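User: We ran a pulldown and think these components assemble together. Before we commit to crystallization trials, I'd like a predicted model of the whole complex to look at. Sequences follow.
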Amino acid sequence: MSFEVEITVQPGEREISGRISSDARLTALVGASGIGKTSVLNAIAGLLRPISGSISVAGRVLFDAERGIDIPPEKRHAGYAFQDARLFPHRRVAANLDYAEKLAKGRKPIIARAEVVRLLDIDGLLVRWPDTLSGGEVRRVAIARALLSAPDFLLLDEPLAALDPERAERLSTLIERLRDRLEIPMMLVSHSERDVARLASKTVRMG
Amino acid sequence: MTSAEWAIVMLSLRVSFVAVLVSLPIAYALAWLLARRRFPGMIVLDALVHLPLVLPPVVTGWLLLIAFGRGGEIGAWLYENFGITLVFNWTGAALAAAVMALPLMVRAMRLSIEAVDRRLVGAARTLGASSWKAFLTVTLPLSIPGIAAGAMLGFARSLGEFGATITFAANIAGETRTLPLAIYTGLQTPGGEDAVTRLAIISIILSLGALVLSEWLVRRAQGGRAHVL
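Assistant: Here's a predicted model for the assembly, 436 residues in total across the polymer chains.
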C-alpha cells in the first residue's frame, strides 16, 4: 500500500475525519475548499497530530494512536510541497535547495539536482530571493526543494491552483513525468477533480 | 571634559555593555518561551519578567540586596564558592542594570520571534531538521533584527539606570558611580554645575543614539509596522 490513512484531526474547532487506502503511484485527494484536505497532508507529514487513528506510507507506520507511535516530522522523510510554498525568505533560491540537500545527506537522492533544476525550469531563478518570485515560480521552487530532500513520498498541496491555464498545463505535464519516473508514492491535493483526472491513478473524495 | 569625567563615561559604557551581554541570552530564551509556548504559569512568568518595569527601581534594588547581598542566599553562595562580591562593585551595577533592562529586551525580542512565520519552522521540520536545528536555521536568523533592537534598547536603559543601582551597588566613585549617579552627585556638590551639564549632554547623546538605532532596526525588520515602545 502506498497510503493507508485513517485519522481524525482537529486543526481548529471542528473535527475532520479522513480515510485513504490507496496503492496507486499517485493518489489524488479532492474536495471543496476548507473541507480539511491540507489538514490530512499536515497529519501525514507530522505537522499536525491526529486525535486518533493511524497513518502508514509505503508500508512504514508513521503514526498510530493506539500503539503510541508518532514519528517526528524530520524522520518521516516527506517531500512536502506546501500550497503556500514556505520558502525561507532569508535564503536565496539556491540556498533553499541547499538546505534540503544538506539535511538529506547520507540518504539516497531520488533525483539529481541538475535534473530537478532542468525539469522545473528554475535555472534562472537560483540567485533570486524568494520574495522576488512570481506565484508560479515560487511553486516550482517549492516542488524542487521537496524533491531534493530525498523523500520517501511526496505530498503536493494544490500545485495547480491559481496558475494560468498554460502554466498549469506545463506543471501538470511535469508532475506526470515525476510520477512515471520516481518510484515513490505521491499524494496530490486539489479542489478540482478536473485538474487531477489525468494525473491520478486513484482519486479519493473528501466531504 | 576632565579625565575623571571620561572615566565615568567609560565605566558607564562598561557596566551597560556587560549588563546587555549577560541578559541577552536570558532575555531571548524568555522571549522565545513567551512567544512560542503555552504552559501553566505563563501569565505569572510574563508578569515577573515585566515586574522591574513597573516596580519602583529602589524596590528592585532592595530585592537584589536581599538576594545577592553578602547575607543573601545567592550572594553568600557566590562569595563562598567563587569569592565574588556584587554589592558595592561595578559588577553589581551591571547586574542591577541587567535586571532593569530585561523587560524591555524581552518585549523587543518577543515581537520579532512572533513575527517569524511558524509555518517556516514546519517546512524546515519536513525537510529533515530537528526542532533545535529548525530553531537555529529559521527562527534565530529571522529574529536577529529583534535581538539587535532589544540589545540596543537594553543598552540605552542600562545607561540610564539609577534607582536600583544606587540601592544595590551604592554610589562609589570609580566603582559604581555611572553617569546618572555622577550627575546626581554633581547636583549635590556646590560648584558641580559645569560637570553636570557636560555629563548630561553625553547621557543624552548616548541614550538617543542607542534608541534611534533600536527603532531603526525594528522598523527595518518589520516594514515599519511595529514599535518597541
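Chain B is about 80% helix and 0% strand. That may be worth checking against your pulldown data before setting up trials.

User: Thanks, that helps.
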